[in-house]
Predict the 3D structure of the following.
Amino acid sequence: MRGTKRRPMSIYIRLRPQWPDEPIVQNLTDTDFYKFTMGQFIFNNFRDVLVKFGFKNRTASVPLARIIPESRLREELDHVRTLRFTNTELHYLRGTNEYQDRMFQEPYLKFLERLRLSNYNLEYRGDNIDLSFGGPWCESSPWEIHGLGIIAELYAREMAKKHSAFGKDVIYAEGKRRLWAKIQLLKENPQVKFSEFGTRRRFSRDWQDYVVAALAEELPATQFRGTSNVFLAQKYGLLPMGTNAHELQMVIAGLMDDDDESLRNSQNQMLDLWWKQYGEALAIFLPDTYGSASFLKIVTEEMLRTWKGPRQDSGDIYAEGERWIRKYKRLGIDPMTKMQIPSDGLIVPVMIKAEEYFRNRFPTSFGWGTDATNDLGFSPLSLVIKAISANGKGLVKLSNNPAKAIGSPEGVKRYMRVFGYSRHRTVACKY
Amino acid sequence: MRGTKRRPMSIYIRLRPQWPDEPIVQNLTDTDFYKFTMGQFIFNNFRDVLVKFGFKNRTASVPLARIIPESRLREELDHVRTLRFTNTELHYLRGTNEYQDRMFQEPYLKFLERLRLSNYNLEYRGDNIDLSFGGPWCESSPWEIHGLGIIAELYAREMAKKHSAFGKDVIYAEGKRRLWAKIQLLKENPQVKFSEFGTRRRFSRDWQDYVVAALAEELPATQFRGTSNVFLAQKYGLLPMGTNAHELQMVIAGLMDDDDESLRNSQNQMLDLWWKQYGEALAIFLPDTYGSASFLKIVTEEMLRTWKGPRQDSGDIYAEGERWIRKYKRLGIDPMTKMQIPSDGLIVPVMIKAEEYFRNRFPTSFGWGTDATNDLGFSPLSLVIKAISANGKGLVKLSNNPAKAIGSPEGVKRYMRVFGYSRHRTVACKY
């Protein structure tokens, strides 16, 4: 038998588009909802503050600068700066009334209409990518999500390049199989309620889209509550989810850190302003910025009574929940009238276990992130883009996990002292 | 928070087409190559014999008639009868020279140009589908593969109907993952050589296409030798694989079974005629029709010297190989100058083990079927369409596995006696 010459193959049942030759970010709404709730708050209260955001790859073993070509990164970043909000997107935001009637007001929407993202500073240094975004807070803040999405997806594309067309398809096949198994587990546990929070560390835009579509098809709205991604909430008619992030507390602390008393007070001031903006609708605490223990000493009883409850973004999920249950009970508040939103590196079995643990004690709704949108057989990177300075002053974050601390050593030390930070266990960051 | 009304989802990264609303058989070349090598042989030698083929579902636990709607089955069968060979397909067959220059001659090609498949008889009886195809042998024989492909895919589509769009996609994702794992195993064992023989029991036409495309992309032609599917061989520039099937020996036995001697002689007569048609090019024995042990008693020493070797389609893979090695050695023939083609329900680990077992003793090339084209998490059915009568006389097959025997009890008993059939172990049919 003679051999035959092979023609190039084409896979018939295939991903489409597999890795399209298209920009990664295509819509300014392809970001977390909290960027808009915070955006309006910043626009109304801190319009003139200059805030710098810095990129950090916490997965030190991966020399990102050797993997992602600088020119590709610049291309994607430049492309985001050419984007503008479309009329349809502004209509969607204007029409958002799930939390409050017309929660986004005309001045902020007018601002969005003209918004152009701040410039970026990019330098490749050895293994590391030095990337920061500085400008008026409202113009630098959106970079958090777009920057992370770009770097995560460029990394995924570079990893995928090593594979054949079939191999690339199998990456998604493996992702689908894993997603399927998780959804089966969730179906068996309908009492576990969650939202999808995985935009920032998604494998790719297309993959997050697929995941959200599958969750919406398979699970009832009583279980899959919504997505933090505004573009996908709009696309699939889901509830857009989100309130606020560490950057608010960090920047406001930075602006008020002239003396210790003022620094300590900054946190309640921020909470007061937030309440003034959105009232109960978005009254979710993010207590871990300077440690949840100190937060519970600072926050007023009145706030604890009126706000809905905490988002738990670091620390031991059980210990943090217990901390809040104890506090509420000491004040005669029934924790069952409150809620908590754990959102730190969750996987489905942990959500199931934690729901059972807190059942009939403290209502729990989960923010499910990286494990939802970046679990296809590759290890996801632990990437962050965080506020690092405000009007030139360095910022500090402590969190319940010292491994997640941000800031100069002196700054971290001072904040620890001022906020009475102690007894938090260091845990390796999974994501 | 108010709930939002969900719009219907659309999966973005998706199979296309998932289960297209298209006929299952779209080309008369979407069949095994041996249908043409046998077809020409039949056309030249047995043109006027009337042969009936009957369908049998060996997976008795599955009540096929309750699952596949009769109207759908009729629709698909009727569609095949409307198909004609295209000019391109006839060009491809005319140009086939991998085994012999212009192996398909003009009279046969002219016949194909006018070929219209014989009619079918279909009756639903309780759980069972009664389906047969009778007519001139050349016109009924092609139904074997088309009929099996239609029933297997209609079954798969009905199974898939229970699943959501995401669920359907995950079926293929699981298939891709399994295929990937098998291909990795094959890459680690490049000495294992095989062809794809899975048309008759494929999950779907699209899936077989995907599998063959992936095999061709991932493995060198020295390992993945070709496919039995003519359409896919043409599409991907692969070697079309196949020689002959049991129907030849069964029909010719049936035509010559007036007395025992003549019945016994029928087998060598068929081999002589086959050699006259194709010479060494397609000189592969199919010894198990009436048991390999009796075959080796009947076949002449001359044939054993000139023919390439056996396709082993039933019985224990090691014992059958040993049987041939012993026979060759007894005749002073070096088995290393011959070859065997095991093709009975193979899975990759068995191919690896058998290759190692026979290495440097008996060259082995595998025919990999159902495990290649129908392993996506559902149990494939064991379906066959076999010749059951010739010019009105019932036909018999014994095989090396009594579970695969075909024919009336008296016929089977007589054939066992005539061919000295004995000592074969009954094994449940996996496929």
Observations:
- Chain A touches chain B through 49 residues (CB under 8 Å).
